[in-house]
Amino acid sequence: MTTYATNKRAHFDYTILENYEAGLELLGMEVKSIKTKHVSLKESFVTIHDNELYLTNAHIPLYIHAGRVPSYNPTRPRRLLVKKSEIKRLIGAIRAKGLTLVPIKLYTKRRLIKLSFGLGKGKKEIDKREKIKKREDNRDMSRAIKTR
User: What are residue 85's phi and psi, to 5 degrees?
Assistant: First the structure.
């Protein structure tokens, strides 16, 4: 399994309650671009349109050796391949509890490109501060132990 991109802010901004895996509907040149690690999940999110899931705002630039493609949009919505039963369950959770679908990482499984996304709840500013404080305290303790 090779990881091509991760969303570093996903676990900082959201509390991930459940993880899901989905395939992506991509063009051939997008697959080549991803496999050369030219992809970014920064500021991307998963949306629902007509009972289908889409990865929106993920930046996959045009493959370097593809030549000219005049109408290519690097941030176009890409359809996620998920079972209908999972989609219905996700739609219910989002509407009932006010949760969000957050992309976490893009990787390969055998020869297929997969997206790991999570059902998450947004963290409040106080929660983020507590996490930063805990991390700094752990750093200070490890430094104190090393200097002894």
Answer: -65, -40
